[in-house]
Specification:
With 97 residues, the chain is α+β, with helices and mostly antiparallel strands. It is 20% helix and 23% strand. The protein is globular, with a radius of gyration of 12 Å. The N and C termini lie far apart (28 Å). It binds FE2/S2 (inorganic) cluster. FE2/S2 (inorganic) cluster (FES) binds next to loops. This is Ferredoxin. InterPro entries: 2Fe-2S_ferredoxin-like_sf, 2Fe-2S_ferredoxin-type, Beta-grasp_dom_sf.
Length: 97
């Protein structure tokens, strides 16, 4: 299962392979901000607390938008990172503002 924590809503949802974290949150009515969906605004930024190995590798947009230190700590962009395998994952929406 994937545990998604939005600003107020927290939900355990079944993984759907190949879709983004943001898509998964939206499909399950978890309140997850977004705007551009292209990897530039960072409103969808999130912290992967557990199970980052079940997500896609950071793409170019994430590397451009996030600091290397942030990525090392497990921060990703919800609109860019995809669910790639089934396993326990915990992700918290952590926008800058
Ligand atoms: S929605 Fe803008 S970076 Fe993800």
């Amino acid at each position: 299962m994937i545990e998604l924590s939005g600003r107020e809503v927290q939900r355990s949802v079944a993984p759907v392979l190949g879709i983004t974290v943001l898509d998964l949150a939206e499909r399950n009515d978890v309140d997850w901000n977004s705007f551009c969906k292209r990897g530039t605004c960072a409103r969808c930024r999130c912290l992967v607390i557990e199970g980052i190995e079940y997500l896609s590798e950071p793409n170019l947009a994430e590397e451009r938008r996030l600091d290397p230190e942030e990525m090392e700590e497990g921060y990703r962009l919800g609109c860019q990172s995809k669910i790639e395998a089934v396993g326990p994952v915990k992700i918290k929406h952590t926008p800058y503002f």
